[in-house]
Structure formats: C-alpha cells, structure tokens
Amino acid sequence: MWTSEQVLALSPDVGSTKNGQKLASCDKWPSLGKSEQIIWGECQGSGKQPYRTQIDLSEPAFRCSCPSRKFPCKHSLGLFLLLANQAEAFKDSVPPDWVAQWLEKRSQTAAQKQEKQERQAADPRAQAKRAAQRAAKVEAGMADLERWLQDILRQGLAVLPNQSYGFWDQVAARLVDAQAPGLARRVRELASIPHSGQGWPERMLRSLSQLHLLTEGYKHLDALPPALQAELRSHIGWPQSQEDLRLRWEQKDPLVERLADQWQVLGRVVTEEENLKVQRVWLGGIGQRRAALVLSFAHGSQPLDISLVPGARFEGELIFYPGTGIQRAFVEARGQTELVQPSGAVGFEGLKFGGIESAGIGFGGIGFGGIEAAIAHCGEVFSQNPWQAQVPLTLHQVVPRSEGDQWWLLDRAGQALPISPRFQQGWEMMAVSGGGPLTVFGEWDGERFLPLSLWNESQLFISLGA
To answer: Among 446, 420, 466, which Cα is nearest to 277's?
Structure first.
C-alpha cells in the first residue's frame, strides 16, 4: 500500500506538492475508479471539460489530459494521494474508453520496443570502423589532457583560485570534440574546487590524480583486465547503449550479466549539471544479495523516470554494465511493484556491491554498526575502483547530532561521520529519531555522507533523497 510520503517523493517540485495536496480530496473528483493495478479519475478544473487522470500503479506510470509539462502533474499527485489516504473512495469498475485506450497504447509501445530489439542486428565491420575512429580521437584528446595536467603541476596549485571558468571550459570543450565527454565533465567539476573552502588543495590534488590515472590507464589499456578496461572506457565517456548490452548478453559476452531477483529500492537522489538532470537510484537484490546503481538522465524540461520509488520492491531482471566495483545496471524486465515497510525479518546478509562482500548486513544493503568498519569498507571499494564517486552505505544504530551548521551521525562507540552540506533535512531526521538510534542509508563520497533514506526502531521508512 502506498503511503503519502512515498507518493510525495515523486513530486517534481515544492509547488506541485502543495497543489497536489490541495487536490487530494473526494469533492475535487466527481468520478473515481480502479481496476487491478489501474486507477483513474476526472478532476474538474477551471475549464468546461474535466481533466482526465490515470495511473498505472505497477510502475507507476502517469497520464493526464491537463497541459502541464511537469511529471507527474498536480492532478496525478492529487489522485495518488487520495488513493493513499482514502482507498475506499475507489470502486472496482470497468475502465472507461479513455483509460482503455491509454492502456492499449502502452501495450503497443512496449511491443514495438521489443520488436525493435529483436530485429536489431549490428554490422560488425561498420561497428569496428566507428570504434577505431573514435579511439583515434580519444587518444589525441588524452594526449592533450596529459600535457595540460603537467602544466598545472609545473605552475603549482596556488594559481588555480585566480583562474577564470574559461580556463577549465576550454579544455573540457576540446575533450568533447575528442569524444571523451566523461573526461570533459571531470575537468568542468575542477573549476569549483578552489572555491570549496578549507582543504581544497587536497581535493584538487585527488581529482587531478584521478585524471592522471585515467590517462595512464588508457596508454596501457590492452594490458588491463577486460572488466577494468570497460570501467576505464565508461569514465572516459565511451557510449554503451542498452540495445548494445542486450545484444552482447544474447551473444554470451562474459562481461555483460543479466540477473533476476526481487529488488528493493533503497534510495534516490537527483542532481543538476547545467541543463542536465541526473538521477541515481540504488537497488538491493534480496535473493542474490547483489546491489546495483540505476542512472537516468533528462535534458531541460524532459521528465526523469520516477518509476523506481524508494521503499518499493519488485520482481525483475537487471542487465549490468561491464566494469568493476559498484556496477551500474538497467531494469530489463519488471513485474508488479509492491510497497513494503522494512521489518526485522528483512536482511541482506552478505550483500555484494561489485563483488565486495560485507560482514554485517541489515535492511538497506551493506550495513555497519560502527563507522570505523564502514570507512574501512569504503577504502576497499575505492581501491577496486579509484574513480568511484559514491559508495552506498547503511549505518545501523546511529544518532544524528548538530554542531552549528554541521550535522553528524554518531555510532555507539562515539565515532562521528560528517553529513554533506547538501543535506537540508537534519531537523526532520532528528525528529524521526526522537533522540534514539536510526538506520540510515546513503552515499559516502570520501569526505561526507549524504543520507537518502532512514527508518527507526518502529520500522518507519522515510525517503530523504531529492
């Protein structure tokens, strides 16, 4: 059963949340209905015709006749909240024509997608030619990047705070031309480090070292293990489409894995990079004890895929991208989604993140009762993949504390883990804890921990990710 908190976690912004809450009332919906995993309703707006809203709860997926470009719109949120708070208002009935047509169109789209995948056949010679051309461009771009890194070290880090944004952007633009967008993104991120406060030289040196390691690794690419080659290519920005990975799996490529399991959605976070929204969703496999990162992107006003809701669980199959450490994946097949509250009986003993197995596990993935052990584990992850940006962690029996503007998580031994300044829900987390211990799932970036979800001793699950 969906809760109001889980529904509101899907909201695109604060305004949609407030407007959706206003519409979560039966008197706003003269027509309501449901059939299996589909709900629908007609909401009377300012126009003559009511807005027709429908939701497929199995993903969830939304459709509304209103002109809003937000996804989900306020009508979808209002209808969903009404289901969460007053499920008895929805009576079982036969879907009206406008709902049936939507379902039929969704079915046809899925069938066409499957047909396209089945008939797609790669031309090996053309594919090899394109790969060779790209490799030549990347090699030239890597050589330019290496010379630029050497210039920075000769001049010293002290001059970097005085550099304009163009100093970094020019190099990034050349890397884009060299078809190395992953490296370009890393170079652009360097621009903010000299202005990031105390300790910036150490952070800059670490980021420059990662870039240097990428250039050195690419020089000796053929000598690296296949999985590490794939990991290095992905950080450079080598494209890997889902269609290509499906084909490689069908051809029994040992680097491409397809795994069926019951998957728990552990946490979700959205960041914005210029005009691009990036969403990270962490999944944990209950049966196979495997974890995965699902990435999705949206340009401009395009909507993100919000069907993976924190706290939800589904039967499905994932295809993993080749690589090392914590591997990215995408959902290839998915059954019905159910929302479950964590209980003491749910555990992921021995859950593996990219082949690294933990000793102590609880609901939410790799679980540690002590911060010292958690940081040691992160060191193992970074040693396996030095370009890893975030390590997912579950911390058990931790208590939130505040010192000025800085929030911390304290374990039973008195060890403290600093919380990222991006986290703006410290007092809400404190209120849920009531001063007592919590279990918190989130990301560790090597310096700060970003909480994404939490649950207390009564097993109340709350999604914190934006």
So the answer is: 466
pLDDT, one tens digit per residue, over 306-361 is 888 888 889 999 999 999 988 899 999 988 777 765 443 333 333 444 433 333 33
Q: Where are the alpha helices (DSSP H) in 40-89?
A: 74-85
Q: What are phi and psi of 438, to 5 degrees?
A: -130, 165
> How confident is the model over 43-76, as pLDDT tens digits?
987 778 899 999 998 778 899 999 888 889 999 9
Residue 327: Cβ-neighbour burial (10 angstroms; 0-12, 13-18, 19+) = buried
Is there a shared CATH topology between the 242-339 domain and the 352-463 domain? Answer: yes
CB atoms within 10 A of CB 201: 15
Interstrand relation of 365-368 and 391-403 (parallel, antiparallel or unpaired): parallel
CATH 2.40.50 fits 242-339, yes or no: yes
**pTM score:** 0.75
- DSSP code of 40? E
How far apart (Å, rounded) are the C-alpha atoms in residues 293 and 302? 21
Per-domain boundaries in the chain:
4-115, 125-236, 242-339, 352-463
List all residues 6 or more positions away from 296 whose beta carbon is below 8 Å from its beta carbon. 278, 279, 281, 304, 305
Second-level CATH architecture of 352-463: Beta Barrel (2.40)
